[in-house]
Design a protein that fits this description.
The complex is a heterodimer of chains A (about 500) and B (about 350). With about 500 residues, chain A is an alpha/beta fold. Chain A has helices at about 5-20, 25-35, 45-60, 65, 85-95, 175-180, 185-190, 200-215, 235-245, 260, 280-300, 320-330, 335-345, 385-395, 420-425, 440-445, 460-470, 480-490, 495-505, and strands at about 165-170, 195-200, 225, 250-255, 270, 275-280, 305-310, 315, 355-360, 400-405, 450-455. Chain A has a 5-stranded parallel β-sheet with strand order 4-9-10-3-11, with helices on both faces. In chain A, α8 (about 200-215) packs across α9 (about 235-245), α11 runs antiparallel to α12 and α12 runs antiparallel to α13 (about 335-345). Residues about 1-5, about 35-45 and about 60-80 of chain A have low confidence and may be disordered. Chain B starts with 6 loop residues before the first helix and ends in a 30-residue tail after the last helix. The model of chain B has no long low-confidence stretch (mean pLDDT about 85). Chain B is of the alpha+beta class. The radius of gyration of chain B is 41 Å and the shape is elongated. In chain B, strands 1-2-5-3-4 form a 5-stranded mixed β-sheet. Chain B has 12 helices and 5 strands. The chains are: A alpha/beta (about 500), B alpha+beta (about 350). The interface between A and B is medium-sized, with 24 and 25 residues.
């Protein structure tokens, strides 16, 4: 049901946005306009009158008014909730083409495409992503030198012989770091390096062996969380496991930045059926990535049940690739289809499924999303975090596979919550008292999680291999390699991140 | 009749003077030497001494105890003259013995004397004269020169000269000599029963108590990590500050590098484990204090490193402290804005 705003209301909104009145006022206006959806009235610009109406309806709690709008309420951020008249929309659009301090575009100068939409000039808002230039692209005679060499590293393989060696990830079509993305710090590091590489550690080999054993078991038996000090290599280990599994025929679902699920950076909307908040954009992105990374394996699988969505019917035996195709064609169905896909994957036994989530602790913190009453939304009321937590806690399980999460200790906004600390048996900052608040629901979502502790210190051999990678990439100033290496190793006390970032790359010692 | 015996004299006498001779206060007549012998003088005396002036008193005319009697500070000048004479005598005797002038090599080979003279208070007490600083300095200068000659004589075994000068010098040597020498001798610091060194480092208002112990390479049988043999025998040092690893306690790379500097300069990176308790100040002060403590600890373990660390100024306690705020200024140096009127 749509609702029309009178001209005065629209101008009032413009005034409010320009003068930057409190968002509260704007939210109230939004809320009021949403509430009036059911009664399809025209909202008046008189906000005081609307306030009184709102309080009246709240008191009454009439089911007709509030049935569709449960306590959680519909999304504030939904686009096109209120539609202005076409004339106002045109005006608004034109005024948005140029900022107010610049000359306004003449309506005659506006160019339109075939469908009548205005063609906007592309503004360069950012410099663009930095990508390192390949050595081979430097063809100028000035760069021709014997010293320019590409990094030659062995291919990644978590075996005993490779412990302590720096390895590069194989270049494959469905490279998970390219398709799924990477945590931010890791991404920056790979941009500086000429090739994405990592060092094989003892813990890599042991974790890979653990996943090998979990291949034939349900994910209920293997729900692991990588823990350790800040900068000890949890995200790297997770990436190594993901790479290893993809090469060994697993279906991999990798979420490198789970923080993005809870920091209100993706759109969200309330779903009446499930009474949770859906994240359609993120769900679609996840589906697309899943498809790209596991296409060959997914073509071999088909649905085991008949599914019916709002306007769509998916018969029994549909290829999973086609299932994802439906979501691509109809983005609003993405969350439901993701849910369905995960259910299908959890029942199939052909390929083991690895569900890998980085920034795992962010899913257990208070989210940055707000409901219409400005109450923070709990993570288990968001569909995707809820799904992840269900697989993590064993409420849902893959027939064959594992769940691996990695926590981020360096994020101050999403700190490790006490429920997870209890479940993973990690030390608390302050003395534990019975009065510390813990959410029972969240505690229910932490049952059965096992902590895999990543060693705080790199061994001397591992650190030396890492040093050699940076040395061969011509990133170091010093030529006294023995002294530089040992001094940086001592300064960082073996911490991997500090060894590279605050040691090798942040020093002027020559 | 008597009056006319000598008419000339009578004429010469002035009849208007009230006193025949000038008034002499009685005190001055004490210890006046009487002239003895001569009848003529006796007669004159008799004549002249008709008045009842008593020229009595026996005294002894003697010369002053020293030529400096008439100076204001006789004892001081006595000392100075004594020393100057001694210097002259010493120089003469040494020249006669061909010990002066000494060639360069011989002068360099002489042992450095460390005389401990009496201080101002002691000298003032001994010579019972108030010694001022400038006079004291002059005396010391002379003493040092004399001591130089004594040194030469001692080295050359010229016994007579040595004894003479020695006796003079002994007058001026302080009784606290032994105590002073003991103080000068540096207390030898050693390692404790476990081979640990303990040193204290300071910087600004921070202090660091540092215990250092050498790292022993693990024997091959104990090695758990498999790795290339290149890394055999390479030890790594662990640094704990207030029981916290260095990486956690000092997040700034500059502080960490400051702490590693003594090891790098000495070339012993990875050779010692360090445990430190650091108090006071901020990050820079604490890291500086720890660096100072580590340098001192390295010197205890390896005294040969003294020169290297001293040249790098790592064993020096950085004297820079926060400058005080002064009146009329906003901060230590910052002045208030100048206003024309």
């Amino acid at each position: 049901m749509k609702m029309l705003l009178c001209d005065k209301c629209d101008s009032f909104r413009k005034l409010v946005s320009r003068r930057r009145f409190s968002t509260r006022a704007l939210q109230q206006l939004n809320r009021l306009s949403i509430l009036s959806l059911t009664s399809s009235r025209i909202v008046c610009h008189n906000i005081l009158f609307q306030n009184r109406l709102l309080s009246f309806y709240r008191e009454k709690e009439s089911p007709s008014m509030l049935a569709g709008v449960a306590r959680a309420g519909p999304s504030l951020l939904r686009q096109n909730v209120t539609e202005a008249s076409p004339a106002i929309r045109q005006q608004r659009h034109v005024s948005r083409l140029t900022p107010f301090w610049k000359k306004k575009l003449d309506p005659k100068d506006i160019k339109r495409d075939a469908q009548g939409n205005i063609i906007l000039k592309k503004k360069e808002t950012s410099l663009g992503a930095f990508r390192p230039l390949n050595v081979a692209q430097l063809t100028h005679a000035l760069f021709q030198s014997e010293e320019r060499k590409a990094l030659n590293l062995p291919t990644f393989a978590p075996t005993q012989q490779m412990i302590g060696k720096a390895t590069e990830f194989p270049v494959i079509n469905n490279d998970p770091s390219r398709i799924f993305g990477l945590p931010k710090k890791m991404l920056l590091e790979f941009r500086i390096l000429s090739k994405p590489c990592s060092v094989v550690r003892t813990v890599t080999v042991s974790a890979a062996q653990m996943l090998d054993k979990a291949r034939s078991k349900p994910s209920l038996d293997t729900r692991v969380v990588l823990t350790g000090r800040s900068g000890c290599g949890k995200s790297f280990l997770l990436l190594q496991l993901v790479q290893n599994c993809i090469l060994n025929g697993w279906i991999v679902v990798y979420i490198p930045r789970a923080k993005k699920l809870v920091d209100s950076s993706t759109p969200y909307e309330y779903d009446l059926r499930t009474q949770t908040y859906l994240q359609p954009a993120f769900s679609l992105q996840t589906l697309q990535r899943l498809l790209a990374a596991n296409q060959a394996k997914l073509t071999m699988l088909a649905t085991q049940k008949k599914h019916s969505f709002e306007k769509r019917e998916v018969p029994f035996g549909t290829n999973l690739v086609d299932l994802i195709g439906i979501a691509v064609k109809e983005p609003p169905l993405a969350p439901v289809i993701l849910e369905t896909l995960m259910t299908e994957l959890s029942t199939q036994t052909k390929h083991p499924v690895l569900f890998a989530v980085d920034d795992f602790q962010a899913l257990y913190c208070r989210t940055a999303y707000r409901d219409p009453h400005f109450v923070p939304i709990r993570p288990f009321h968001l569909s995707l975090p809820r799904m992840i937590m269900e697989y993590a806690s064993g409420k849902k399980s893959f027939a064959k596979g594992a769940f691996v999460g990695a926590i981020t200790t360096s994020d101050t906004q999403y700190k490790l919550p006490s429920e997870l600390k209890d479940a993973l048996d990690l030390p608390h900052e302050h003395f534990k008292t019975p009065y510390d608040k813990r959410s029972r629901t969240l505690m229910g979502y932490t049952t059965g999680l096992k902590a895999l502790h990543v060693p705080e210190q790199l061994s001397l051999v591992e650190a030396a291999s890492l040093y050699e990678v940076w040395k061969d990439d011509k990133a170091l100033i010093s030529s006294l390699h023995d002294e530089a290496f040992l001094s940086k190793y001592t300064e960082s006390s073996g911490n991997a991140r500090d060894f590279v970032w605050k040691g090798l790359l942040a020093t002027f010692d020559s | 009749m008597n009056v006319l015996r000598n008419p000339a004299r009578q004429v010469l006498r002035r009849s208007y003077t009230t006193a025949r001779r000038p008034f002499v206060p009685p005190a001055q007549l004490n210890n006046v030497q009487r002239r003895t012998g001569g009848a003529r003088r006796r007669r004159k005396r008799d004549e002249e001494e008709e008045d009842d002036v008593q020229w009595q008193g026996d005294f002894e005319k003697s010369s002053p105890p020293s030529p400096t009697f008439y100076t204001g500070r006789s004892e001081y000048y006595d000392q100075v003259i004594l020393l100057q004479n001694a210097i002259v005598q010493a120089r003469k005797s040494l020249k006669m013995l061909h010990l002066l002038p000494l060639p360069e090599f011989a002068r360099n080979s002489l042992p450095t004397p460390f005389p401990i003279w009496k201080d101002l208070e002691e000298m003032s007490a001994d010579f019972q004269s108030l010694m001022t600083r400038s006079r004291y300095r002059r005396v010391i200068k002379l003493l040092n020169e004399l001591n130089g000659y004594f040194n030469i004589a001692k080295a050359a075994n010229a016994s007579e000269v040595k004894i003479t000068i020695g006796s003079i010098i002994a007058l001026f040597e302080s009784g606290k000599k032994a105590a002073s020498l003991a103080q000068r001798q540096k207390k030898t610091v050693s390692l404790d029963q476990y081979g640990r060194s303990y040193s204290v480092g300071k910087r600004k208002t921070s202090s660091a108590r540092v215990w250092m112990i050498p790292v022993h390479a693990q024997p091959t049988s104990m090695k758990t990590q498999k790795g290339p043999s290149d890394y055999e025998g390479i030890t790594t040092s662990t640094i704990l500050v207030n029981n916290i690893p260095l990486v956690e306690y000092f997040p700034i790379p500059a502080d960490r590098e400051r702490i590693m500097r003594p090891f790098k300069v000495a070339g012993v990176v990875g050779a010692y484990n360090v445990f430190a308790i650091v108090r006071g100040g901020g990050t820079t002060g604490q890291s500086g204090a720890l660096s100072h403590g580590i340098a001192k600890g390295l010197v205890i373990h390896e005294p040969k490193l003294t020169t290297v660390l001293r040249k790098a100024q790592l064993t020096r306690r950085d004297p820079r402290m926060v400058e005080r705020k002064k009146t009329g200024l906003a901060k230590a140096r910052k002045r208030y804005a100048w206003v024309k009127r």
